[in-house]
Amino acid sequence: MLNTLKILFLVFLFFSCSLPNTFDSRHSGDLGARKIRRIAVFPLDPVSQAEKDKIAYSAAPRPEEKPLQEGAPVVVQNHLYFTMSSLPHWQIISEREVREIISAVPPGPEGNRAKRLGELVYADAVIFTRLIRYRERVGEEWGAKSPASVAFVLDLWDVRRGDLIWSGRFDETQKSLSENIFAIGDYFQRGVKWLTAEQLALEGIKKAVNNLQQTLYRGAS
Q: How many CB atoms are located within 10 Å of the residue 211 CB?
């Protein structure tokens, strides 16, 4: 019995280390020295296909890909705001304060808009969300005909210098264990149920936000 448990543990460890990478990030080398404390969340807009084509690590469009589900940007934006607000070390500017001033931010490149909003609300940095894909599960949590699929990119801009200092990408279409044995670690965490798009998006947001905070405040207590 003990040997069987040891074997199962080693199998779990192997597959956990071999998990497909659903989240990637990159950042500037001096991120810790930027002293980023006060952050504004820029209101999310859906990404057009033309904009998707400019995103270096966005997936190629699928022929059956449909427009984003109505309300998806609001769902993702709310989860991002509340997830960031629940963590220490930084101050997240209120949504109300951003909404009151956003009309004063003219259209233009993301970096320019981040700098302008940041100056208006006295932020050190502004985070943008680009929602690339948000496809809802078809079926029930114990038997889905089609799985949920979510992809988004988060970009953090330094207001003072006007440059991109951190970027994270989440991209996952949930698969059954029989389709992807390397996802066994996810099944220990989630169970065998099929997630909704909102649940999958929340998982991705938590991964991204935790990565951002650990990168910004590495070593902070």
A: 18
